[in-house]
Structures are given as C-alpha cells and as structure tokens.
Design goal:
By secondary structure, this protein is of the alpha/beta class. It has 13 helices and 13 strands. Helix 3 (138-157) runs parallel beside helix 12 and helix 10 packs across helix 11 (301-309).
C-alpha cells in the first residue's frame, strides 16, 4: 500500500501535479526577477550589466612566421640529411654527426631505420705496391694475398687506412709514358712504378709489404705518421725502401729528378736515382719491423731457405711468423688490439 507522509503528526495530502507545476514555475519566475532587479544595485563598483551586452571576444591570430620549435606542429617540413659515403651495411644504415647524443635518432635523421653515430677520426692513408701483372702460380699468389691481408690488418689496428696500389694507379701518373720510353731494367722500372702509383694518390706513406708496426699506439713515430702531415720527404735509416713519407709536391719533384737523371740506367733503385739531399733520413724507427730478405736470412735462416727453395711455402711460414709477432707484441700493451688486428 502507498506510504503515508505526515507533518507534526498530521497526514499530508498529496498535491495535484498541475498545482505543483504552477508552484515551481512561480518560484522560478520570482527568483529570476529578484536576480535581475537586485544584482546591479548590489555591485558597488565595476561595469554595469549593460556593458556586457556589447562585449566582443578577441580571437587570437597566428603569427606570420611560424615558430621553428620542435613542439610546433605547424613548423616547416624539414628535409632528411643527405646519405653519406660508406654509411650502409646490408639493411643497416647510419648518419655520422656530432649530434649523436640525441636520444632518438629518428628526430634528426627523419628515418626510423637510420641511426645517428659519432663521426670517426679520419685515417691517414698508407700505401703499398703489388704488381698483379707478373706471372705466378696460384699457390704463390695465395701466399702473397695472405701476406697482404696481414699487412692491412696490422696497419689498420694502428689507426691507418691501408691501400694496395697496382700498375693501374701507375698508369694514371703523367710520368708513366716518359718512364716507358726509358731504357732501364725491369727491377728499376718496377721500383719507379711504385712511386708513380704513389704520386697519383697524393700525400701519404709508401710502405713495403714486409714492413709492420711493432710499437705502442702512442709511440712518437706512429703518432707523427697518423697526423697525415709530412713537411719534408722522409725515409728511415737502415730500412732501405721500406718506408717513405711525404707530400704530393715532394713526391712529384723526386720523380722528375729521377727521370731527368742521365745515369738512370745504372741506378740500382729509386733512392740511388736521386740526389741524397732529396730525402731527410730519420734514424729513429724502433716501432717498425722490416722483414727484408737480409733480416730474415740473418735471424730466421730456416725460413729464408724455405723462401729460396719453395717460394710459396716459405712465404706462408713467414706470414705465420709475422702474425705471431704481432699478437705476442701487442697483447701486453693493449689486450684488445690483438683481437682488433684480426677483425679488419
């Protein structure tokens, strides 16, 4: 049954819906009229309500020049940085820049699959010469290639960029035609061709395949060679043609002097074909090891006999000896360098 509401013990009769609607409407009208007529007088200071009728809301205007902030969604579209040389390996790609500490590489490279890495220090080039046109059997060629690989690894581990030159680089030299017109023996022609190939590449270091770095990374001589600046044409005492360092201007001047020598035919090598003052002789080269024929014959007579008898077999044995010296020498100084030698 319905609930009976009471007030002070007396029952309350329910109000008719029409009467309730009239009551609520009257209360609402009274409240509105009271607000309209009493509110303006209740405010002691300030604008009147009539001023709000003419008020206009100011709409913000966009600046003519958009902000370059990265938080601005209307900023001008940026272009991705250009693709650098040797910046891909398989599906991986990267961009070298000093902003490599950026938390997200894609914010700089504008590519989700392209990483930003710190720039690598430029490696000075060091050259050696290999004449691939000479006729050799496959076993001998494989032994020489293995030795060249050891040479490249050793110099790369010391911070250089090893490059193997060939007669193709010698042909690019403007002095190649003049050399072919000279009546000289093949060994001397081959020695001068090494310099022609070096001259076509420019400033750098010319090294024999049997000369290896055997010093600490901070050795003064190796540090000097890594700087890549050679004010004078330099060779090293008791190393013969093992190592030269010089600028392109000095290399070109030395070649011109050798080709202009009237007694070039009687010269034994390039050093004897030029004036002694052409080179500055450096007596300090303790950080270099030159496995020349004379050195191998003096200290490793058995290997020298194998080289003279078997050729390829002896050269392969010499290569193993050099590799063993490299690993055993560098391990006490820099433990990671011995592994870096074989990672190139």
């Amino acid at each position: 049954m319905p609930v009976q509401h009471t007030l002070f013990g007396r029952p309350i009769k329910p109000m008719h819906p029409r009467k309730l609607a009239i009551l609520l409407g009257s209360v609402a009208i009274f409240a509105v009229l009271t607000l309209v007529f009493t509110l303006p007088q209740s405010i002691p200071t300030g604008p009147s309500l009539n001023s709000f009728a003419h008020h206009r809301i100011a709409i913000p205007k966009l600046p003519s020049t958009l902000s370059p902030s990265i938080l601005n969604p209307f900023r001008q579209v940026a272009h991705a940085p250009p693709v650098q040389k040797n910046s891909t390996s398989g599906e991986a790609s990267w961009y070298s820049n000093w902003s490599w500490l950026t938390p997200f590489s894609s914010s700089f490279t504008l590519d989700e699959n392209r990483s930003i890495l710190p720039p690598l220090r430029e490696r000075p080039p060091i050259y050696t010469y290999y004449d691939y046109t000479m006729k050799k059997d496959e076993e001998m060629r494989n032994a020489e290639n293995a030795l060249l690989l050891t040479w490249r690894r050793a110099w790369w581990a010391q911070g250089f960029k090893p490059v193997i030159l060939s007669p193709s680089e010698a042909m690019r030299s403007p002095f190649y035609t003049e050399l072919q017109m000279k009546n000289v023996e093949d060994p001397l022609k081959n020695a001068i061709s090494r310099w022609l190939a070096w001259e076509s590449m420019g400033t750098g270091i010319l090294c024999e395949t049997l000369l290896f770095p055997m010093g600490d990374h901070s050795d003064p001589l190796l540090s000097y060679l890594r700087r890549g600046e050679y004010p004078v044409l330099t060779r090293f005492d008791n190393l013969g043609r093992g190592l030269f360092a010089g600028s392109k201007i000095d290399i070109t001047a030395a070649i011109k002097q050798a080709l202009a020598n009237p007694g070039l035919k009687n010269a034994k090598d390039f050093i004897s074909a030029v004036e002694p003052e052409t080179f500055e002789i450096d007596p300090k080269h303790d950080s270099l090891a030159y496995y020349s024929r004379a050195t191998v014959k003096e200290k490793y007579s058995k290997i020298a006999d194998e080289v003279n008898e078997g050729g390829a077999k002896g050269l392969a044995t010499l290569n193993k000896l050099i590799a063993a010296h490299l690993v055993c020498f560098y391990r006490p100084y820099i433990p990671t360098l011995s592994s870096a030698i074989w990672s190139y």
